[in-house]
Amino acid sequence: MTREARESCGLFGVHGVRDAARMTYFGLYAQQHRGEESAGIVSADGETLHAHVDVGLVTDVFGSEHLDRLRGTVAIGHVRYGTAGGTDVRNAQPLVVDYAAGKIAIAHNGNLIEANRMRDEFEAHGSIFHTTTDTELIVHMLARPKNVMVDEEGVKYTLSSLKGAFCLLMLTPEKLIAARDPNGFRPLVLGRVRSKGWVVCSETCALDLVKARYIRDVAPGEIVFIDKKGLRSETFCVKRRVQPHHCIFEQVYFARPDSRVFGDVVHEVRLALGANLAKEHPVEADVVVSVPDSGNSGAIGYARASGIPYDRGFIRNHYVGRTFINPRQSDRITGADVKLNPVKSVIRGKRVVVVDDSIIRGTTSRGRIRMLRAAGAKEVHMRISCPPTRHACYYGIDFPTTTELIAANYTVEEIRDELELDSLGYLSV
Amino acid sequence: MTREARESCGLFGVHGVRDAARMTYFGLYAQQHRGEESAGIVSADGETLHAHVDVGLVTDVFGSEHLDRLRGTVAIGHVRYGTAGGTDVRNAQPLVVDYAAGKIAIAHNGNLIEANRMRDEFEAHGSIFHTTTDTELIVHMLARPKNVMVDEEGVKYTLSSLKGAFCLLMLTPEKLIAARDPNGFRPLVLGRVRSKGWVVCSETCALDLVKARYIRDVAPGEIVFIDKKGLRSETFCVKRRVQPHHCIFEQVYFARPDSRVFGDVVHEVRLALGANLAKEHPVEADVVVSVPDSGNSGAIGYARASGIPYDRGFIRNHYVGRTFINPRQSDRITGADVKLNPVKSVIRGKRVVVVDDSIIRGTTSRGRIRMLRAAGAKEVHMRISCPPTRHACYYGIDFPTTTELIAANYTVEEIRDELELDSLGYLSV
Amino acid sequence: MTREARESCGLFGVHGVRDAARMTYFGLYAQQHRGEESAGIVSADGETLHAHVDVGLVTDVFGSEHLDRLRGTVAIGHVRYGTAGGTDVRNAQPLVVDYAAGKIAIAHNGNLIEANRMRDEFEAHGSIFHTTTDTELIVHMLARPKNVMVDEEGVKYTLSSLKGAFCLLMLTPEKLIAARDPNGFRPLVLGRVRSKGWVVCSETCALDLVKARYIRDVAPGEIVFIDKKGLRSETFCVKRRVQPHHCIFEQVYFARPDSRVFGDVVHEVRLALGANLAKEHPVEADVVVSVPDSGNSGAIGYARASGIPYDRGFIRNHYVGRTFINPRQSDRITGADVKLNPVKSVIRGKRVVVVDDSIIRGTTSRGRIRMLRAAGAKEVHMRISCPPTRHACYYGIDFPTTTELIAANYTVEEIRDELELDSLGYLSV
Amino acid sequence: MTREARESCGLFGVHGVRDAARMTYFGLYAQQHRGEESAGIVSADGETLHAHVDVGLVTDVFGSEHLDRLRGTVAIGHVRYGTAGGTDVRNAQPLVVDYAAGKIAIAHNGNLIEANRMRDEFEAHGSIFHTTTDTELIVHMLARPKNVMVDEEGVKYTLSSLKGAFCLLMLTPEKLIAARDPNGFRPLVLGRVRSKGWVVCSETCALDLVKARYIRDVAPGEIVFIDKKGLRSETFCVKRRVQPHHCIFEQVYFARPDSRVFGDVVHEVRLALGANLAKEHPVEADVVVSVPDSGNSGAIGYARASGIPYDRGFIRNHYVGRTFINPRQSDRITGADVKLNPVKSVIRGKRVVVVDDSIIRGTTSRGRIRMLRAAGAKEVHMRISCPPTRHACYYGIDFPTTTELIAANYTVEEIRDELELDSLGYLSV
User: Fold this and answer.
1) pTM listed for this prediction
2) Which of B300, B393, D40, D294 stands the most exposed, by the fewest C-beta atoms within 10 Å?
3) Subunits that touch chain B (at least 3 Cβ pairs < 8 angstroms)?
């Protein structure tokens, strides 16, 4: 799956440590793969909030001077991939606003349903919107007079009326609040750090980096309040008849392989998918290679299950970044060339199985396959550790629209033709 | 008057020219002295708005790539000095929001009265605030359902209920709106550019730079709508019993000497103030010098009226900027030293009259006077082309609080002592 | 092997293509792993040379505006790792100077022997040195009157008197010259690009990216002149009794796995080293993992030869860069933590073989091993696909001094203890 | 005179103070008007030299982190305007090299005669040149074996053989050396700072800023050695028959008005030139205005001598900088418009005398005159406080070539026509 389509947002919150902002910086850094558009941290010092939010990578947005100003023992942070809303700095999160109950900061991972309708309703009642994010809509709901009156009850009431995918971190000058939608679409985990600190974040790889211990997942429909008196857990979803509905893309694409998501280590999940793929779509071949790094775990799983040797078919350039100069047309150098180069000695004369986690538009995959052909592959068999991506998902993944998804418009056989493959196999559902 | 206290905000709007954003860039550049904190331009292309706003000087905030993206034949821009609200990028203007009637951008020069009370009321009804500016408050008022229903009438109704100082530029995808408060505290002028373009801006020096012709001042209580059909002027202030009440600081401090403000050329006003000062506070002296550049016009006026020769007593370093390295304490080099150096040959052995436009805290003035003493002045007589600044002004000038104003806490005689002057004279009211 | 010790310099030259500088940019980008300190390109347009050289990565140093100014159909470029000379911009290459024969640019990969003695001799004769590089010494030799007189003969004479490791690219306004020392310590390859262009560079991965065809290695002792009349090859080393002496570190550490170096594909060499390692140091274990990315090929080789399954034991953070904020001491977060995270499910309860390409100081390796222990490894067996690094190499690799090399001061058994390993095996010579 | 033509280089050296580099920073800052191309500081700590040199303004080139690294109690600095050599960073000064006697840094203000011939001679003997500056030539001369042998005698011998204009600062790890050419073309002054420090710099305005006391000018043909034992003065010019020959452009254009140059305060010199101009070229007029800031002192002198009132005819935009966006052609906004705006009330209907210090190409002056006409001037009389600039000067001023100088190609009467003036008067020699 290409970078454009694979990311989500990342959340990190911590309560009860010195230099909470600095720890949040590392927590975001570990989850940078979940969003490269913008980064932000808001800290609370008991009296007020301090914020720094900007577009760019965590290491671009924050310098020591910023972290020094973000005083306090509580902080929340966010890295964003634009699921809704463009790349405007005003869409960067956490969002910090004043409302009747004082100051609040809010960070959101997910996508609401019926957001546009609700937005229209608010506007009809005189509300103004500074951003195009769902997050601002949530703040408007929180700020409604009836909610504000009752504080924590108001928050719970607001959350119970939201539809869609959401993991939320909220920060007031005194309190850190974390919540996860009743379906549990997106991951949110709870950990302990140092002697008595609490951490809430999207992926366990952030716990690992800040030396926090994984305690448990925040449950679907759970809201957690953390303040000086400690942690309190409640359920905001009155009738708990909702089915948990984890987003499979988290395990297949988004999360880092070393993270534990929805209770399973992502790498293990992908190994198993690769093994299943080998069973569903076996082929006679000489070597199994992956499209780095998205196909790495799946390829190892496929190789183990099939008995075909695993090898490194492509080498990734470590310096691939954002500010690359575009080659002129005549150079015929593509972004794909810059990122990966095939290892000819591994490929030449071989029947190659190449494993990846998805095919979105098809253009990137075709480039990879042509590279393998140019490197001398005798046969190229592609295996995708996921079912065909046939429709855009409305729960927080910003896929290309359906018309752009190759699997939405062609049969597997047509795609095989289009990509000039000897065989193509998707994992079944 | 020190830089910190002398600035206000600058507005520039243009309708009906190709590259409206580029012209706005120049219009803001000419008015940079009105605000160095942030700069922003929003353009309209008939369908939507395009915005770029950031902290910093106009030349720092905008590159060609930004201007190229700000498409359209209509644009408004703003340079800001923080009259209310800190240096956060979220306070930078124009503010762009979505509300029931669509998109609107708004830029404001002035300060509202009772802003905090109104803000509290809005919050009590569920509104949220992203910034600490009065401008956002105006947007909330505009967005109230009853206003929105009736469009232009709604805008007029909102303006009629505002109290305080305001010049406003508003931009929708189709229309440019300009308005000035009924007292006319702050300046706003109307000009024509090229064959059929309209310009609205704070100072005429911006008209000069973009080669626009000055037509007239926007009248107190006037609202101007400019769209494809042309310009329409209306009055939003139902009962026109309000007294015009121009802010004298505009002519004394804020405006560029080459601008025409409230009908008079600023330089001429300051010449006359200097001449009056010579009549009210004559002194036997050998030379009249100014504190550059704030006292330049006043000093020439004083010299002419008194017959004492004018000379250059201080030379200004042209490279004074913002990112200066602080000298260590031991170097005894002050910011004042870096900015100005006395011309010893002009000062030595002379009885010197030094003219400035204000004394705020007194520390800067004392530094200048010590420089003159160190350069060998026999006597130092300070003349201020303005009455003592005794209280902070609530109409848009961010003076130090009253406790910091030297004239609020000391008599003229005490200030003379404090500044180690042979004599001190303020202009009477 | 740590980054600090593993890099060398990278060369790229091209003759006979439009936009030679732009192609050189890509050629350097592909070889960025050979040097991150500085980057430079010099182009020739038939009349003069155009240069841009600065400290930083290729993508930091060059923007489109620079490439546009580097006109001409011939260019050479250099990425540098400071084998000698600090990080001063003046040491960045190519070096461009004026001398009696006109302008010349020169780029060098390697280290000369007796450089300091020769430098002293030149200084005693009145020469001045602007840099601390060996490259400047070569230029002084080229500029000696007797060399200049005879042009190409002079260049050959100069090269024949150099001792040590050197691959050189030289550029005059009309001619590109490439040479390799008689021992052939460092790699240099020749390729063709587009219809009639020539490329000379350090590694074949650069040929791949610019779509050039590999022709052959530049031979030890060979000098190649490329100008409008085409390519001429000569031998500058009169008596060809010198033994070829390839630097094994090129294949073991420096080069990209997809490059062909000294005739062999690097990945294949490393696979074979891993396989030999499995034969020399077998162990009963459950999983083979690599230290990414330096140990990847070796680990696959070890796994294949030993029959123990290969798996991903560590996940690398893709965002590891240079401008990272140092965590405070109290955070106990190390640079190693930021770079890699173990996959607990792969490690827990397992007997782990971890493969890397070297142990330099030992501190980094100890960090990795502790990570594996913390992740629950039952046993940790380290295998190094190279003999112990016992002394600094004087042919162009800037190793830590001998006192810092752990293998120079301890026996293998002592290192095993120091690193808290269950077993440790180095490849024999 | 336009900025392009008016600048020279600025030198600052200090011996015997803590934080010598920091004081040098301020000394350069005060002399920034002498060169905006590049800035550099080299410090000596008794053992070695520390350098930081780059293109840009002093405030752009240096941050606290640089000054902190420039350790030692002795330092020299340089700001450069490219009298010879382009804007390449390699031409920035001070130049730091190794030669037989060790490390030396050198900074130069002036232009040598016969530099190209000497350069060719050096190249013929095998020397290489990294820069296109005369400074490097001086270093080559210093490094010749016969000079090096005798140290201070060698320096004196080298200086005695130089022809042209030069003020030099040299720095070795132990010693600061300052020298001025026998004609004394360029200024160089000596001061004392704090209890026992010495300062050597181009203009006294730098002494003022660092709180140093002016002692005397360095004499033409004098060389000063400052080390731990104190200051020693010698004469390097054996036969002292040379005529002092001060560059009049220093007083007319280059220097800051508050500086004392060649014994006179620059502002006073310019007042006197303005007064002479009034005597030589009287005119009936209503107002005298200056082209800011180059004509300010001259205009005051003219006004006083003629009895015609002085007023501010143009207002200068304080934000004029380097990174300005070019207006599109259609905007008809020129760089001159951006820099200055006429004060219409001062000009309208008046007979205006406008004073400047030079006319170089004529294009800038014509722009100013047209502004005055557009502002309603009845008559425009230009007065230039300097003789016609008829030929490029070869002693360190980088004038446009003779063909571009308007006065070299036209009579005064023709220039008057060309500039559309009512009258034009140059000062006689």
Assistant:
1) 0.88
2) B393
3) A, D
